[in-house]
């Protein structure tokens, strides 16, 4: 009985663990990709989780019931975002020979990143991308060429775009040397209103008991039922042994003449 109960219990626990397992949605993401994807899914009531895998990066897992809605959401939003392309990666600082062009490219790439970080800290600005147009070679004469600046800014809905553009132009002119006001171009986009509910699937959520509690109670009830069945089988086997022994006694047979049923 004990061996039978142990095997049945292990089988039930395997079924419960399989029911609780989440499906892999994305893997090999960097931290920024994982965070943006996780935020978008959770804002739409999808129970997504982020898991870290060391050098392999991050993965996003979702419950099986949310998998289809998660895939639709990622397709609609264009997630995960592509890895950011850094000019500094094309001109590593530990190169054997660092040319003046490579040093200039690395410096301006870092300036672009600093400008983006500062612009994104401004109120009502969600995302920003700044590009500096510059000559790859130093000018032959003494005159220093001006730098052209192009910025793409995504802001929250309802922002005053003309006022925001004027502030950003003034900031960029004073932040970048040899920049002229007329050489600064800013393109504005209003972000879409955030949606906090899944548009393609509406499911009933029972608030009377958490899902984990329901599964625990169901598993306990199932294990209890298995224990009752195992006890009934053991009782039947004991009754069968008693009946067979009484029959042998009445028939006057010994152990060598009749075998006890198993």
TrEMBL record:
GO BP term (any one): protein secretion
Keywords of the record: Cell outer membrane, Lipoprotein, Membrane, Palmitate, Protein transport, Signal, Transport
Membrane topology designation: Lipid-anchor
Gene Ontology cellular component terms for the protein in this record: cell outer membrane
Flagellar M-ring N-terminal domain: residues covered: 23-140
Presence of the UniProt keyword Protein transport in the record: yes
Places the protein is found: Cell outer membrane
Record carries keyword Lipoprotein: yes
Major place of residence: membrane
Protein family membership: Belongs to the YscJ lipoprotein family.
The protein's name: Lipoprotein
Protein species of origin: Pararobbsia alpina
């Amino acid at each position: 009985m004990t061996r039978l109960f142990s095997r049945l219990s292990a089988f039930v626990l395997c079924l419960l663990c399989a029911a609780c397992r989440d499906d892999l949605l994305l893997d090999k993401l960097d931290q920024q990709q994982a965070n943006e994807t996780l935020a978008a899914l959770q804002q739409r009531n999808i129970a997504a989780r982020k898991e870290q895998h060391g050098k392999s990066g991050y993965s996003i897992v979702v419950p099986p019931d949310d998998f289809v809605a998660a895939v639709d959401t990622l397709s609609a939003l264009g997630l995960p975002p592509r890895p950011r392309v850094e000019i500094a990666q094309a001109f590593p600082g530990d190169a054997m020979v660092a040319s003046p062009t490579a040093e200039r490219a690395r410096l301006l790439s870092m300036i672009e990143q600093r400008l983006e970080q500062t612009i994104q800290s401004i109120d009502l600005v969600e995302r920003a991308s700044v590009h500096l147009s510059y000559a790859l070679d130093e000018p032959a004469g003494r005159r220093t060429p001006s730098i052209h600046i192009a910025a793409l800014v995504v802001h929250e809905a309802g922002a005053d775009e003309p006022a925001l553009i004027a502030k950003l132009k003034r900031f960029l002119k004073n932040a970048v040397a040899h920049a002229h006001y007329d050489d600064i171009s800013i393109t504005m986009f209003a972000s879409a209103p955030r949606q906090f509910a899944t548009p393609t699937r509406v499911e009933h959520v029972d608030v009377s008991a958490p899902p984990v509690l329901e599964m625990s109670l169901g598993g306990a009830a199932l294990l209890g039922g298995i224990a009752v069945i195992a006890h009934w089988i053991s009782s039947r086997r004991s009754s069968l042994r008693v009946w067979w022994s009484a029959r042998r006694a009445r028939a006057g047979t010994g152990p060598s003449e009749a075998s006890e049923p198993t």
